[in-house]
Structure formats: C-alpha cells, structure tokens
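ok so i was messing around last nite and threw this chain in just to see what happens. nothing serious, just curious
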Amino acid sequence: MHTLARSPLAVVEYGPDLAITEWNESAARLLGVPRQEAVGRPIAELLPTPEDEGVWRRLLDEDSGERRLRHTRSDGSHVACAWAHHRVLDARGAPAGVLCIGRDVTSEVAASRRMVEQQAILRALVDNLKIIVWASDGRGVFTYLDGKGLSGTGVKPGQFVGRSVFDVYKEHETAGLRRALRGEQLHIVSEANGKPLENWFVPIEDERGEVAAVVGITLDLTESRRAELELRDRLALIERQQQVIRQLSTPILQVWNGVLALPMIGVVDSARTADVMDSLLQAVVRTQARFALLDLTGVEAVDTKTASYLVDLVRAIRLLGAEGIITGIRPSVAQTVVSLGLDLAEITTLSDLQAGLKHCIGRMVGEERARGGRPLRAR
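result:
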C-alpha cells in the first residue's frame, strides 16, 4: 500500500462501512481534498456520483472492473475519472473494502462528446443536403463516401471504400486530389459526365506535417445552374417588357412633316426623363425634324430635378438645329417650374398640343412663302 500511496494515479480505498481508509496525494490533487480531511469520511460525501448514487456500495459485491464517473471537486468544478476497482477480502473471504485506482479522463470524455456531436452534424449534412462527402487516405484510397448527392448517380454510400480513387475515376478527374495529396487546399468548379460540379479538397496533415488524408465535398450544380438560367431569362423578359412599357408610355410621333410630338403621361421621374431625352434626340437627328413638341397634358406633377431635365432637353433640341416646344403645362407643374426659378424666356410654351401643332405648321408655311415655295402638305 505504501507504493500505491506514491502512485501518480489516484488511489482511494474504503471499507465495508463506505468510510475512506486510504487517500493518496494524487487523489488529493485530482479531487481537491487533502488526505487528512478525506480519511474517515464517507466516500459518497467526497465523491458524489449523480449518475449512480449506489455505485460505491455495489462495488463491495464485485470482484473487479472499471467505471467512469463524474465528480464535483471542492471548488465546484467537475472531473471525470476512470476507476479500476478491486474488492478486498478479509481472512474469511468476506468483503473488507474496495481499492479504487483512478485517472483523469475529463479531456477524453470531452473529446468523445465532441466526436459524437461532430458525427451527428456530419450525419445531418449528408442526409439533408444534396452533397457528396468523401475522404481518402494519404495514398488516395477511399475511406468514406456518403451523402444525399449520391442519389441518382448510381453510386451507393460506401461503395468505393477500400478502392483507390485513381482506379475509379479517369486521370483528368483526379487532378484535384493529386494536388490535395501534395498539401494544396482547393476549390474547383468542373464538369463530369455532363454535370457541373463544385468541389472542395481539404488535406489533413499528421503530426509530422505530412498529408495523411484528404476530405472532399462535391456539390452538383445542375439544379442551381438551371435556376440561374431561368432567373436570367425572367430578368431578360422583364427588361424587354419594361422597354416596351417605356416606349408605349413615351411614344415619339411624327405628326407632320418635320414635326415630332412626344405626349408624356403619368408620373415623370428623373430616370424616365433621361430615357426620353436620349430617345427624342435620336429621333430628331434621324428624321431631321424642325420641331419637337413635348406635351405635358397628361402629367400631374414632376419633381424638381425632372423639371430641370425638361428645360435641358429643350435646349439640347435647339443645339441639334430644331426647336423644342412645351405644351399642356398643368398648374402643379407650372408651380414647380416657378419655385425652381427656371428661365423659360427662350422656350416656347403653349396651352395644348393642338396649339403647338398649329404654331409649327404656321411657322413652316410662313418660311415657305418667304422663300416663294408651295405651301406645306401633310405626308
């Protein structure tokens, strides 16, 4: 017993009455109770075991074995111990006590718990996500293969375990694994059997820094690519529809030879005005128009920036050699223009589109007569 007292392992002995008879220094360090305070006290008091309150009494009837128990130290912390117990008999063969030799397995228990948790997480991933999770050893031999992504591939979970990846797949399909076995972590998008695949290769190194294994994740991108293409088609359709709507909402009409009219309806914001400016200026150049009528009869209101754009549009038309005329300004729009202090002295404004068209025709007729030509006729 003297040798056990100096053992690096915790040594605890108790008698038939469950009182401590031996408690070495290792036990004192491990459990936080000095020997002089431990000897003579009930073991259930010093080493409470919430998992199994009667375990110490039952050990009196067992020859030997091992139990893993969790104890609360005197400072309130917890420690997990693996106790190898041996029943001590007296001269008549009756139980005289139990000798327990224990070691701290707190880190082992925690690691085991983490392992169980990680396995549960992995199981949840491979069972619910359409991925393929695989692993190989340092020679490229499959050690794991599973995942919901295997469905529809003709490959069963674990089917290739024990076989070399290089025997199962073609050389160009194993380029990523070869690089990973050399220590390179990779993320590759490729194609196999006509399917787009996203692959991750993660090398796992041993204590010597050498690649001992490679963990891989493969994601089939077929469905996401299909969804991406469908989304692009829908966006393109929406863009085309918006373009048609913009064209319908701001039609540029040639109402007379050399006269363009742009009736604007609804809400006119800065973005719409920018589109109108580009389209109208191109139409003026294309048709060599003399006049461009901006009819605002159907516009209830404009913001301050838009009002400024409309004035700039008329000035841009003038730079192209044509005259811009604004017709049908409503009171609310007029108030916005006045509040901005915009100078409309050089811009012709008329009450409605009819007045604007009459103005343009009158101007052109007058110019023709001044040149001695024939009066203008509509095309």
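not much to say yet. DSSP finds 13 helices and 15 strands in the chain.
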